[in-house]
Amino acid sequence: MGDGNGEDNKSATGTAPPTPQHSKSLSAQSIAKALLAGGVAGGVSRTAVAPLERLKILMQVQGNQKVYTGVWQGLVYMAKNEGIRGMFRGNWTNCLRIVPNSAVKFLTYEQLIRLLSYELKERGGDGQMTPGLRLAAGAVAGTIAMSATYPLDMVRGRLTVQVERTGNYTGILHCTRQIVGQEGLVALWRGWVPSVIGVIPYVGLNFAVYETLKDTVIQMSDVTHERQLSVWTRLGAGAVAGTVGQTVAYPLDVVRRRMQMSGWSGAQALHAEGGKAVVYSGMTDCLTRTVREEGIKALFKGLWPNYIKVVPSIAIAFATYEKLKEWMGVELRISS
């Protein structure tokens, strides 16, 4: 995913990095290994921050009735009322979604960058990737991955938000059947539009900032090949990338989550007033009503626990992905 230069540089361990391929196509083995690395990276990173992910969603969908008022208070409240198991509620579904999502996202980004570099060289250029090209490739990769796994995100959101006193879903398949049976098949895609709009800057900035920061470190240090970058350097770059991307896209994430809960009585205790579940007619209605009834700050509910979640999550995902690729001997990096 970074920018190998194809030279016979030695890594910090004294091992020469594999020579990058510059053709348009990838071998089936490279694709399989990259998908595995991306999937594992996604599962590990999300599980590590699962309680914070659940707290973020609960804070996003609660209305003026404040149940969760802060990170520590929210975590203690969940642990006290639902136990450790409750803190990880929805994580299994989240992993079922994030593993293929992460796998497709990383592989798509790598292949897009590979194709762009190839085309630039064919036109007489040096194949260097600019921040803008990385942003565009990341945006496309994120959109494809998110769209392919969106129904699982919808189900995960419902399972995550429900609590024992209001919940009525017993598992992934039961939740899916209930949503389709009671709200129609299209309900599985509720909130997809703000998700697409939000994923463009979020994933795009994640990749662009991460890759650009790595390049900057290499240029400003004695490092001659990105394989010499320490894990801590990669974690730091991933943390900055995740924070920037999430800040820009967060309001749309709030809208997406509220639309997913729209009309569902199981979330009544969290975001309903007067005994009725809130129903939104669309993205614009959800956005305007949220701001009108709760103020502009409502679009950033749960942002602080999300920062605490995003910093390690994105960092772990990037670092794990690249280390797994190195361990498996797959090289998708293209020349910068």
UniProtKB/TrEMBL annotation:
Solcar repeat start and end residues: 29-115, 129-216, 229-327
Subcellular location: Mitochondrion inner membrane
Keyword entries, A-Z: Calcium, Membrane, Metal-binding, Mitochondrion, Mitochondrion inner membrane, Repeat, Transmembrane, Transmembrane helix, Transport
GO CC entries: mitochondrial inner membrane
GO biological process: transmembrane transport
GO MF annotations, alphabetized: metal ion binding
Statement: the UniProt record of this protein carries the keyword Nucleus: no
Chief place of localization: mitochondrion
InterPro entries found in the cross-reference section: MCP, MCP_dom_sf, MCP_transmembrane
Region (Disordered) location: 1-24
Polar residues biased stretches: 11-24
Keyword Membrane appears in the UniProt entry: yes
Bilayer topology term: Multi-pass membrane protein
PANTHER family membership: SOLUTE CARRIER FAMILY 25
Family: Belongs to the mitochondrial carrier (TC 2.A.29) family.
Protein's UniProt name: Mitochondrial carrier protein
Organism: Symbiochloris irregularis
Organism lineage string: Eukaryota, Viridiplantae, Chlorophyta, core chlorophytes, Trebouxiophyceae
